[in-house]
Structure formats: structure tokens, C-alpha cells
Design a protein that fits this description.
This protein is of the alpha+beta class. Helix content is 29%, strand content 37%. It has one domain: Trna Endonuclease, Chain: A, domain 1 (3-Layer(aba) Sandwich). The longest helix is centred in the N-terminal third of the chain and has 24 residues.
Length: 136
């Protein structure tokens, strides 16, 4: 039995705004580290990649999952479970089949964002190579 209550439009809008704030903060942090953000919110059918990036002088295509929670809640990165990893791996396989990404190596990173009470990023943790999909 599903005991979750449906989200109101107000809560849905707040969640979307919070997610956008977290993704923007994550993109800014990565750019400061030298990453090139090439696309945000990549849709591949029912799959989505939050951020897609490259690093100069590498052959890496970096798939970045941004997870946000309020300060004091469980670590956001723990929400990147095997199901989410599988979805990201499938999305990466689709990307690698495209001509512009052929020959690239994939790296999966996670950005954990803790949000304050105003739904603004309080702290960010970058976890490079958060998991390995053993893609060739």
C-alpha cells in the first residue's frame, strides 16, 4: 500500500526550483574545477542525465548525477542506488552510440548538495568516479 501523499502543485514547484538551484550550483562548482559543461538535463527517452561534461585534454565524457537533500537529512549521494546507476549506465550507452561521442570513455560522478531551509545550496560534495559501470 502506497502511503505517500500526492505532492501539491506548490510542493512540486518548490522541488523543481530546489533541483534547479542544486544543478546550477553543481555546474558552477565543476566549471571552477575546469570541467566543460556541455549539456544540462539530457533526455534520452525515459532516461535523464543531470549534467554532461568533459575535461580538457582527456578522452572522458562525464555523466554527472546531482542529488540534493536538506541539511541534516541522510547523505544525498546514498540515493544513487543500483537502479539509478543502471539508468545512468543505459543513458551513457545511448550517448556512446552517437557519432559525436564515439571513442569516448565514460566516467560517472555524483554531486551531493545539502540545501538550507530556503532551498539554497548550503554545501556541495563532488564524488568523481562514484561508480564504475565497466563500459568498454
Amino acid at each position: 500500500m502506497n502511503t505517500k501523499r500526492p505532492l501539491t502543485q506548490e510542493k512540486t514547484a518548490a522541488r523543481i526550483s530546489s533541483g534547479q538551484n542544486a544543478e546550477s550550483a553543481a555546474a558552477d562548482m565543476l566549471q571552477a574545477k575546469g570541467y566543460n559543461i556541455i549539456k544540462r538535463n539530457v533526455r534520452l527517452g525515459h532516461l535523464e542525465i543531470d549534467l554532461l561534461a568533459t575535461l580538457p585534454n582527456t578522452n572522458l565524457l562525464i555523466v554527472i548525477e546531482v542529488k540534493a537533500r536538506r541539511v541534516g537529512a541522510h547523505a544525498p549521494e546514498l540515493r544513487v542506488d543500483w537502479r539509478k546507476q543502471r539508468h545512468l549506465t543505459l543513458a551513457a550507452q545511448l550517448l556512446l552510440s552517437r557519432r559525436m561521442f564515439r571513442g569516448k570513455q565514460i566516467q560517472f560522478d555524483v554531486i551531493a548538495v545539502e540545501m538550507d531551509q530556503l532551498q539554497k545550496p548550503h554545501s556541495l560534495r563532488h564524488i568523481p568516479r562514484a561508480f564504475d559501470a565497466n563500459m568498454k
